[in-house]
Design brief:
One of its GO terms (molecular function) is hydrolase activity. The protein is mostly beta strands and about 160 residues long. The protein has one helix and six strands.
Length: about 160
């Protein structure tokens, strides 16, 4: 695929591509992207790891509409963010999204199942570079490139 990455989401020379580990439990089920208890969430489930590529899928429902009958772009971006986040999680450290670049290539109708794939293109210090794509009926519909930043555990401490 043509990479969507800009200079900010392209790893520098010398960045390494680590092996992914099977995802450890997140111990948090309220996440919009993957939480079982997030009633309005998209509930992505890790479905496979093909070498260095993580795979998952979700089905677009009416609550995800933007234009009538079509998925809202923000939902598709959130799904990609989650898929990329799952890869960052499988790098074995804690990361948050710093920058997310998204290309929307075809409209995605309600009822579509979006097959998502995501992978790491390099890690350089605290920075992890990730890319991903979503296919509908075998056609590339959305793709993303992102920069994730490693954060300390305190980043996730509950706020008042
Ligand atoms: C499938 C299911 C499985 C389960 C898996 C669950 C997975 C979970 C899924 C998760 C769900 C999905 C995930 C989510 O939804 S994560 C939620 C959305 N993201 C956030 O809330 C992050 C908010 N931002 C911050 O907290 C801070 O800004 C961070 C921590 C990111 C950096 O602040 P910090 O003070 O710590 O560091 P720094 O500012 O010195 O920056 C460090 C370096 O990084 C560079 N930089 C920073 N930002 C950008 C940028 N935008 N473009 C380009 N570069 C950027 C910066 O220039 C610097 O570079 P250098 O000067 O060192 O060269």
């Amino acid at each position: 695929m043509t990479t969507p990455a800009s200079a900010k989401t392209t790893p520098p020379t010398g960045a390494v591509v680590p092996a992914l580990k099977e995802p450890p439990p997140t111990e948090y089920d309220g996440c919009f992207g993957c939480g079982d208890q997030a009633s309005d969430g998209i509930r992505l489930k890790h479905t496979g790891l093909d070498g260095k590529v993580a795979e998952t899928a979700f089905t677009v429902v009416e609550a995800h509409q933007g234009a009538p009958g079509l998925a809202h772009g923000g939902i598709l971006a959130a799904a990609l963010d989650e898929a990329l986040g799952s890869v960052a999680w499988m790098l074995g450290k804690r990361y948050v999204t710093g920058r997310l670049e998204t290309d929307f290539l075809t409209p995605v109708p309600v009822g579509s199942t979006v097959q998502l794939r995501a992978w790491c293109t390099g890690v350089d210090g605290r920075k992890a570079y990730l890319e991903g794509e979503g296919h509908v009926d075998g056609k590339l519909a959305v793709r993303a490139a992102a920069l994730f930043i490693e954060v300390p555990e305190e980043h996730f401490e509950e706020r008042p």
